[in-house]
Structure formats: C-alpha cells, structure tokens
What does this fold into?
Amino acid sequence: MSSTLGIKLDDATRERLKTVASGLDRAPHWVIKTALIEFLDREETALRERLEDEARWARYQETGQAIPQERVMQWLDALAEGRREPCPE
It folds into this structure.
C-alpha cells in the first residue's frame, strides 16, 4: 500500500530537482522517492550502529572485559593476509 505525502520546496530546490530529474530522464517523484529511501537506509544503519555501540559500552562498563588491541591487530593482520581466523573473544 502506498499513500501520498506532500512536501514544500523553495523555488531553487524545485528547479534543482527538475534539472536532475530531466538529466536522469526520470520524473521528479522518482528522484525524491529514491533520495528518501537512500537517506532512510543510511540513517537506519547509523542508528543501529550507534545503539550497538552504546550496548557494547554499557557491557564494558558492567564487566570491564575487553579484547586487547594487540590481539585484535593480529586478527586483522591475518584477515589482510587472507587467513580466516576466528574473531577474538
């Protein structure tokens, strides 16, 4: 199901939208929809990552457990060399 949502654009933005849409041989509606979907995908990913980071930080504050940087660097070096080693815990 879809529904219509109106937005207000100033004249300069509306002209930019028309120019881009014309250059892509697409309707302005398609450009707006595509841009909105890409923005939402990016922002949802950023939000999910921030929440994961906050959960990790809270877990560290509770337990004090962390992976030493030296072990992480060894693991990353192995990955860069094409060796698949289990992620350090």
Summary: Residues 37 and 49 are 18 Å apart (CA to CA). The helical segments are 11-24, 28-63, 69-80. Residues 28-63 form the longest helix (36 residues).
